[in-house]
Design goal:
It is a single chain. By secondary structure, this protein is mainly alpha-helical. The chain has helices at 2-10, 12-31, 41-50, 58-63, 67-70, 79-94, 96-103, 106-136, 154-181, 186-207, 212-234, 271-287, 295-305, 310-331, 334-343, 355-390, 400-424; strands spanning 52-53, 141-142, 237-244, 247-249, 252-254, 258-264, 346-347. The strands form 3 sheets. The protein has a 3-stranded antiparallel β-sheet with strand order 6-3-7. Strands 1-2 form a two-stranded antiparallel ribbon. Strands 4-5 form a two-stranded antiparallel ribbon.
Length: 431
Amino acid sequence: MLSAFVRAFRTPDLRRKLLFTIGIMVIFRIGSFLPTPGVSYPNVQICIDQGESNTLLGLVNLFSGGALLQLSVFSLGIMPYITASIIIQLLRVVIPRFEALHKEGQSGTAKLTQYTRYLTIGLAVLQSTTVIITARNGQLFQGCSVDVIPDDSIMTTLLMIITMTAGTGLIMWLGELITERGVGNGMSLLIFTSIAASFPGAMWSIAGGSGGIGAFLVIMAIIVLVIALVVFVEQSQRRIPVQYAKRMVGRRTYGGSSTYIPIKINMAGVIPVIFASSLLQVPALLAGFGDQTSGWKQWVATNLAATDAPLHIALYVLLIIFFCYFYTAITFNPDEVADNMKRYGGFIPGIRAGRPTAEYLDYVITRITAPGSLYLALVALIPTIAFIVLGVGTNIPFGGSSILIVVGVGLETVKQIQSQLEQRHYEGFLR
């Protein structure tokens, strides 16, 4: 593996792409520490040391690499783009025009990408406004005695909203630059950079906490086991054999080949974890307004907002399983796959083409999603339960979503480097 990376850096074209990707990552991390105009950076550091951050914004802070709590130019991170992409994908089921654009090929995909960009900017305006209001009300840093935004004038507020929105637009552009001129998917790599940047500080806090070096070693062992589990499952496939019949076109014979449909155990990726986490935060967000002494608000804070509550864990697992099936049904259409196979003369051995093929694919997807959803729920809960048992806190950024993203993006990037390397050196990673 290391020799393959050495070969990659020895190849001029691939070395240029790798250095370009690393340079964009460095720019992204620099922007994460550049304070937004109107924010008192010394007061922000005091609040980080004194108070507890708002756990409702933990997901956004995770995907921004800690930039949210710094109230930096890139404080929103890539989260608005992720939300916009998910919304556009879900709207394909509701709006026939979006589904038609998706089937048009490259031109339709470019149009959907444009809609995603517009929606990203709109969501960035809303989220930046929410973050600024939360910081001014003292809810971003609970228990902090200083004001992180000293000037509360309208012009300063507008400048902060414009700056954070522009930062999101710049992140989106940087991600597209990596996809076009670098290695790997740009947006995924920026998320990978954000999460990976939080790991050293988190490990340092565990080692220096109440658990000491013993808790640190146990956590490291758990993380290694979870990573091994994620790598094993993410690489696993159910291969459905497909045979293409021979057909004559003029004097030439086409077809007659054998291939397969690769179906992953976890086809939904990390999306169900993000959906479940976001949905569970809604009741706690609503309960955060108004009188906090109300009975139902205290019940919500105890049973739904607390990540170690049994009801929270049970709902978390059920929502992950539900969204696994829901998102898989959206992204994989058995009828469309069966129609494409029938159009090009393909069939599954032992299964008739057309409707029986679609029913068989639906049966396989339903069966294989069951263990996939349980695996996703297990990976999402193992780190949290371990942190609770060891008493090192539940806000450490080693949750299921972070591990799944880091490992998944790492595997996908290595595959892309491998494919580009093998185009130039056939030995490549196989050596």
